[in-house]
Amino acid sequence: MQNLNDEVEAALGKIREGLRVDGGDVELVDISDGIVTVRLQGHCAGCPFSQMTLKNFIEKELVKSVAGIKGVVSV
């Protein structure tokens, strides 16, 4: 059985494919109490749509793919 960190990294691996098409990326920073903290990178870091990407793409996929994940925030 995978630990939570491994499950989140596996899900982020799939998410990264979509982000990299537009020159972006995402890095896992922390997981605490069901909240995943990430750092947006590349074009995603300065994009005016980054919060939409965070909530509508990254968070939606992680909550769906990994049991126990409640939300995603960025630093």
Any key phrases for this structure?
3 helices, NIF_FeS_clus_asmbl_NifU_C, 3 strands, single chain, FSCA_dom_sf, GMP Synthetase, Chain A, domain 3, alpha+beta, globular
Counted by DSSP, the helix tally is 3
Secondary-structure element order, as H and E? Answer: HEEHHE
Structural category: alpha+beta
CATH class: Alpha Beta
Whole-Å distance between the termini? Answer: 29 Å
CATH topology (level 3) name: GMP Synthetase, Chain A, domain 3
Low-confidence stretches: none
Strand order of the largest sheet: 1-2-3
Fraction of residues in helix: 40-55%
Sheet having the most strands? 3 strands, mixed
- Determine Rg (CA atoms, Å): 11 Å
For the secondary structure, the number of strands is 3
Mean pLDDT score, rounded? Answer: 94
Amount of beta strand: 25-35%
CATH architecture designation: 2-Layer Sandwich
Domain module count: 1
The CATH superfamily name is: Fe-S cluster assembly (FSCA)
What is the 3D form? globular
GO molecular function: iron ion binding; iron-sulfur cluster binding
Organism: hydrocarbon metagenome
GO biological process, one term: iron-sulfur cluster assembly
Pfam families: NifU (PF01106)
Description:
- It is a single chain.
- The N and C termini lie far apart (29 Å).
- The protein has a single domain (4-74), classed as GMP Synthetase, Chain A, domain 3, CATH 3.30.300.130.
- It has helices spanning 4-21, 43-46, 50-65, and strands at residues 24-32, 35-42, 71-74.
- α1 packs across α3.
- It has 75 residues and is an alpha+beta fold.
- A three-stranded mixed beta sheet has the order 1-2-3.
- It contains three helices and three strands.
- InterPro entries: FSCA_dom_sf, NIF_FeS_clus_asmbl_NifU_C.
- Belongs to the NifU family.
